[in-house]
């Protein structure tokens, strides 16, 4: 009996018709915390498979797994991420879940990231993208230097969930400055609801209307996120809502399929 059958029974669990495959147009979830026991996301391979099954029901077929790299909190490296990805991939091969995964990371802008840039040890997505984030508490003074330094290595920075940085909510021009610096922007799908609060929702919808987002991710950590995401997909016409933005998720499909992650030493 395969792992998939052990976890979910002889047949796939019932899926609410209101959410089934509604996110298939995105094709790739490029920001999530599905790698097991490596950060504050999934804590086991079994949990990872359950979460991936739920996301697969929503329409995702490919996943770029992006665990945190955060000095002193989640001190991950290419090697630790590769190990977790290997464990997940091994169990996926024993399951009936038809998905593809690659590993990268979500890099916190801190002193650890400075070292990684200096040594060219970033965990890079297929296509040469590098996902970065800041603290929710305070803006990083190193943001624009980090964007520049990543570009000097030949990579393309993506700022994760800019709508969640409350210190920009009353300084909307900062989002334009970040874009003008050549940094792409990634929306958390849950932000279009009130999951993170009303101000985050307002910021997200304003940025969507302005066509500012380049990528969309789930930022999924656990079952609560999955349940909330299913509610969002049932309630909101996500595809129509995002039609104002040049969303690039689908462009990652060929990068993953053709193994063009030569930027990345992660297995």
Give the helix/strand layout:
Blueprint: H1 3-8, E1 28-29, H2 45-58, E2 62-65, E3 68-69, H3 78-94, E4 100-103, E5 106-108, H4 111-118, E6 129-133, H5 143-152, E7 156-160, H6 173-180, E8 184-188, H7 198-209, E9 215-217, H8 223-235, H9 238-241, H10 252-257
Parallel strand pairs: 1-2, 2-4, 3-5, 5-6, 6-7, 7-8, 8-9
Helix pairs in contact: 2-8
Question: Could you explain the architecture of this structure?
Answer:
- The protein is of the alpha/beta class.
- The protein has one domain: Metal-dependent hydrolases (TIM Barrel), CATH 3.20.20.140.
- Helix content is 37%, strand content 12%.
- It has ten helices and nine strands.
- The chain has helices spanning 3-8, 45-58, 78-94, 111-118, 143-152, 173-180, 198-209, 223-235, 238-241, 252-257, and strands at residues 28-29, 62-65, 68-69, 100-103, 106-108, 129-133, 156-160, 184-188, 215-217.
- A six-stranded parallel sheet has the order 3-5-6-7-8-9.
- Helix 6 (173-180) links the parallel strand 7 and strand 8.
- The radius of gyration is 18 Å and the shape is globular.
- The two termini are 27 Å apart.
- Mean pLDDT is 92; it is low at 1-5, 8-13 and 260-265.
Q: What's the rounded overall pLDDT mean?
A: 92
Number of helices: 10
How far is the first residue's CA from the last residue's CA? 27 Å
Query: What name goes with the CATH superfamily?
Result: Metal-dependent hydrolases
- What's the shape? globular
The Rg value, from CA coordinates, equals 18 Å
Uncertain parts: 1-5, 8-13, 260-265
The succession of helices and strands, N to C, reads HEHEEHEEHEHEHEHEHHH
Oligomer: single chain
Overall strand count:
9
Give the proportion of residues in helices: 25-40%
Instruction: Decide which structural class fits the backbone.
Output: alpha/beta
CATH class bucket: Alpha Beta
CATH architecture level-2 label = Alpha-Beta Barrel
Q: Main sheet?
A: 6 strands, parallel
Number of separate domains? 1
Per CATH, what is the topology? Answer: TIM Barrel
Protein name: protein-tyrosine-phosphatase
Catalytic activity: O-phospho-L-tyrosyl-[protein] + H2O = L-tyrosyl-[protein] + phosphate
GO molecular function: manganese ion binding; protein tyrosine phosphatase activity
EC number: 3.1.3.48
């Amino acid at each position: 009996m395969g792992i998939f059958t052990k976890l979910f029974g002889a047949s796939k669990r019932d899926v609410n018709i209101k959410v089934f495959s509604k996110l298939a147009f995105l094709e790739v979830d490029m920001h999530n915390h599905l790698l097991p026991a490596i950060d504050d996301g999934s804590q086991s391979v079994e949990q990872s498979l359950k979460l991936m099954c739920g996301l697969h029901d929503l329409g995702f077929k490919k996943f770029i797994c992006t665990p945190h790299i955060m000095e002193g909190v989640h001190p991950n490296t290419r090697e630790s991420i590769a190990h977790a990805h290997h464990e997940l991939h091994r169990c996926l091969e024993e399951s009936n879940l038809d998905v593809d995964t690659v590993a990268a990371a979500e890099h916190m802008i801190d002193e650890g990231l400075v070292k990684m840039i200096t040594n060219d040890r970033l965990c890079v997505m297929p296509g040469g993208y590098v996902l970065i984030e800041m603290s929710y508490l305070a803006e990083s003074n190193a943001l624009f230097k980090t964007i520049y330094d990543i570009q000097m290595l030949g990579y393309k920075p993506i700022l994760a969930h800019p709508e969640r940085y409350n210190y920009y909510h009353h300084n909307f021009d900062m989002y334009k400055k970040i874009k003008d610096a050549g940094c792409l922007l990634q929306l958390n799908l849950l932000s279009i609801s009130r999951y993170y609060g009303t101000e985050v929702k307002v910021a997200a919808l304003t940025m969507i209307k302005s066509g500012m987002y380049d990528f969309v991710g789930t930022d999924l950590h656990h079952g609560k996120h999955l349940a909330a995401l299913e509610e969002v997909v049932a309630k909101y016409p996500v595809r129509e809502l995002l039609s104002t933005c040049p969303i690039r998720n689908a462009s990652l499909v060929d990068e993953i399929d053709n193994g063009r992650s030569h930027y990345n030493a992660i297995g």
